[in-house]
Amino acid sequence: MVIRPVLTPGLVLVLGSLLAAPALAGGIVGDKHPHPDDRALVHRGTVIPCDPPRATVALAAGDEIAFADTTTGAGAVPSYGCRAWDESGPEHVYRLELATDLVVDAWLDGNAIDHDLILLDACDSDACLTQQNTEFSAWLSAGSYILVVDGYEGAAGAYTLNLSAREPGLPTAVCTGPDTVDLGTLQGGASLDDSGSLFDRPDLVSVWDCAVTATRGGERWYRVTLPADDQTYDDGTDVGTMRLDLVAAATSPGLDLALWIFDGCGLDATCLAFVDVNPAGGSEELRLLNDESTPLTVYVGVDCTAPPDSLEAGRFTLTTGGTVAVERRSLGDIRSLFR
To answer: 77 in helix, strand or coil?
Structure first.
């Protein structure tokens, strides 16, 4: 199976056919700071005051934990090795203990004070794994990690830190469960549309090696089969590539959608594509091609960056444009058409 770029205006394709499953302690995504520090900041490694931590958290799959606290006083760590941000505010340090590999989501509610989140694998500012403004999602191997809530440009005050954890990989329920909508095999010219809400949906995936943003909302999953590429001209030129167009559109101005495509479930599942390029209230689009001689079954997830707070706020529509046979000729054949 190959996902090929299709140069159609307004249509976005994220290449993913060569991507492997996420490396543990990798696949970390988050959000950028809205006000990057433009001043020249010379970072120097600093020992982080880890002992005693604000809390030591033994995380396990299924945990959802919140810490409401307030930073005060002077900061001990002016910057971190991940980004050239001024983190001169006071720090609160949390130690995360993972007995098994986990996907960990961390986020700050509100954040009007402008705290940042920094994840490290040691009590040293150069041991930085990620540094984000409000949130991050990370696929982490078993071990001990340091999570710091720090103040951007000296910020200090109240915050709420949220942590959730789940087992890594795409759950088998996506591929075999009754909640996945089976769109069947989309024949040439056919199209199937669906609509629904992401409110109160389970969050089964928020980070993978293909993702460029964290998607902490719940998903709606679909099973789609593309017909085999088995049509050729008499001269052997292949014209049978099957194309599937996907368009997910938000019907609420506050819903920020994303689209996933996986080839299966479990730890070895491959993310074929991911897209999240448009702002809240917009739509996300992908185009998938099957140029193999066997049918291709994929699992499409309609996701969102943050959970909607009501049924109406989470509404979306998914349009699956009909699969069509796409002519694929050699470059020489194409040039001959213009002689």
So the answer is: coil
**Residue type for position 63:** D
Contact in structure between 173 and 204 (CB atoms under 8 Å): yes
CB atoms < 10 A from the CB of 308, how many? 23
E strand or H helix at 333, and its extent? helix 331-336
Is the previous residue joined to 279 through a cis bond, with omega within 30 degrees of 0? no
Beta strands in 152-238 (DSSP E): 158-166, 181-185, 192-197, 220-226
Cα–Cα distance, 240 to 265 (Å, whole number): 28
Strands 158-166, 102-108: pairing kind = antiparallel
d(CA 27, CA 22): 6
Q: Which of 246, 247, 244, 162 is nearest to 206 (CA)?
A: 162
Q: Following DSSP, what letter does each residue of 237-259 receive, concatenated?
A: -B--EEEEEEEEEESSTT--EEE
Nearest to 218 by CA among 269, 257, 177: 257
pLDDT in tens, the chain (339 residues): 334 333 233 333 333 332 333 334 448 998 877 776 655 577 788 999 999 999 999 999 999 999 999 999 999 999 999 988 999 999 999 999 999 999 999 999 989 999 999 999 999 999 999 999 999 999 999 999 999 999 999 999 999 999 999 999 999 999 999 999 998 887 766 677 899 999 999 999 999 999 989 999 999 999 999 888 765 555 555 555 678 889 999 999 999 999 999 999 999 999 999 999 999 999 999 988 887 888 899 999 999 999 999 999 999 999 987 555 555 544 444 343 334
Q: What is the model's pTM?
A: 0.82
Output the CA–CA distances (angstroms, integers) from residue 225 to 36, 127, 187, 221, in the order listed: 44, 44, 9, 14
8 A C-beta contact, residue 191 and residue 320:
yes
Structure tokens at 16: 């993913």
Q: What is the dihedral of CA 18, 271, 9, 327, to 10 degrees?
A: 60
